[in-house]
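Can anyone check this?
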Amino acid sequence: MALAPRESENGEERIVASASGPAILRERYVISTDDEIKELSLPSSPAYPVQDKRDNSRALFALICKPGLPTRHKVLSTIKGESIVGILPLIDYGPVDWEPYQQKTMVLVYQRPAGGRLIDAVASKKMKISEYDLPRHVIEPFAVALRELAPHDIPHRAIRPENLFVTDTERESIVAGDFASTPPGYDQPHVFEPLERAMALPEGRGKGNIGDDLYALGVTVALLFLGRNPVEKLNDTELLMAKIEQGTYATLCGGERIPVALLEPLRGLLNDAPEERWGLEELDLWLSGKRMTPMQRKPATKAESRFQFGGREHTTLRTLVHAFTQHVNEAARVIRKGQLEIWIKRSLKLVELSEAIGAAVETAQSHDRDYQGSDDYLVSKVALMLDPTGPIRYKGATLLTR
């Protein structure tokens, strides 16, 4: 169907796509509105075919951004037109009138990967990824990509098997897909996010850093090697609790036979302590053949006795904090009665923390007529005391600012 005129709110006429017609970016890229490319679509950004009016031989596709969801403008301006090892090339981007949404939205035009999505190629047996392929085809190119992004202070934050693509018909080159159409980490399932970010809302996970990308790379490598997700049946809360109590490596790989070739990088990349997790330097040394001995963080310190709350027995502070924020009023009663204070002092031997919580309760009592005395404020304040590196939790919102 042809393009048709439509009157805008200020009375000026503009050209937009009709119901089944295309949208056009910069009078060059013609984007079909009819045929979604399911195998290239992302959770928040459907993919559609693109025709370059100046070069009809180019294989392109567009991701249609979700209206109201901010894109990563710094990423877009940095990677547009650049050839970065391990990153799907971004050709162009900009706003268009997208008729299916009945409004203007941002579209990102990418080079279409000739080999499609990696997991589809593996599932159809067109491609096989063994323990010996992972270092050269996955770990090394993504280490290069992260190194190139680092000087721009840009983390990827969308590394996962479903967002990896094969760019050539020989199936030798694997790249990570889009990471600019949504906020950092927005579409990442919990399993790919470090503990601190997994506890936050998708839109409040913070900008993140290269350590988060290396963690996601570790999870990606583990799942590709195993050929499945060993924690697929766990819901988000169950997965979070397992990672807190056992550690990520044990949660994902504890019951699996991990080959020596992958043992070191998986232990290094999946370390739950950010300061002990492998960085690019450690990864480069391992890729060059140097044996490493990754430090494995001990599971969270457990209390001598269990704290019953929210239908669960808690032995670690982080699992308790998570439960507190799910049942704020009940948590406030427990805190005000001094039960938490006593448990922390007697079972965890954290006297200073116990006293600090007692002081917070006294402050809340002196502000019984304003917000500082509310249940929401008290639980939020205590949650930060119990988990200072975790997200801010207040009135149902959980977010990181870093």
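Reply from J.R.: I decoded it. The first helix runs from residue 73 to 79.
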